[in-house]
Specification:
Layout (H helix, E strand, L loop, with lengths): L2 E6 L4 H13 L3 E4 L10 H13 L5 E6 L3 H7 L7 E3 L3 H9 L5 E5 L5 H13 L6 H15 L2
Parallel strand pairs: 1-2, 1-3, 3-5, 4-5
Helix pairs in contact: 1-5, 2-3, 4-5
């Protein structure tokens, strides 16, 4: 059973709750790292927690939701080994998995509606990495640049 770590800030709380149930309904093992209300909070705390669980292999993939997805992505990508992508359309949800082997999906609750978020999440989770030589080479360059920070 694939394991998903999910987190949000206050802006993404409602969407996170809906997506968490969707993941459970699809048979995933879900770890919710918070936030657990719509009270104002700091998105980096949850982004780093999800990212650390993915890197530690406590989760196979991560899902992060804030107002735009951008802040979560920026914070998660500070963790070596994370390839977090903000997704706002179906093509990007597929390409970031097949080309970039993204391991954390970030979405904006103030940018897309819940139905689109559910669709993009399903595409992200159902799309395998293509493992093409050029994609592997490029991911290697990303990983080397992260380790130099």
């Amino acid at each position: 059973m694939e394991r998903i770590a999910i987190g949000s800030d206050h802006a993404g709380f409602e969407m996170k709750e809906i997506l968490k149930q969707h993941l459970i309904d699809r048979g995933y093992s879900v770890t919710d790292v918070g936030t657990f209300s719509d009270a104002s909070c700091d998105y980096p705390d949850y982004a780093v927690e999800v990212a650390n669980r993915v890197v530690a292999k406590e989760a196979d993939k991560g899902v992060l939701i804030c107002g735009t997805g951008i802040g979560m992505s920026m914070a998660a990508n500070k963790v070596p080994g994370i390839r977090a992508a903000v997704v706002g359309d179906a093509f990007s949800a597929e390409a970031t998995r097949s080309h970039n082997d993204a391991n954390v999906l970030c979405m904006g609750a103030r940018v897309i509606d819940v139905e689109k978020a559910r669709e993009f999440l399903d595409i992200f989770l159902d799309t395998p990495f293509s493992e093409g030589e050029n994609h592997i080479r490029r991911i290697g360059k990303l990983e080397r640049s992260q380790s130099e920070q």
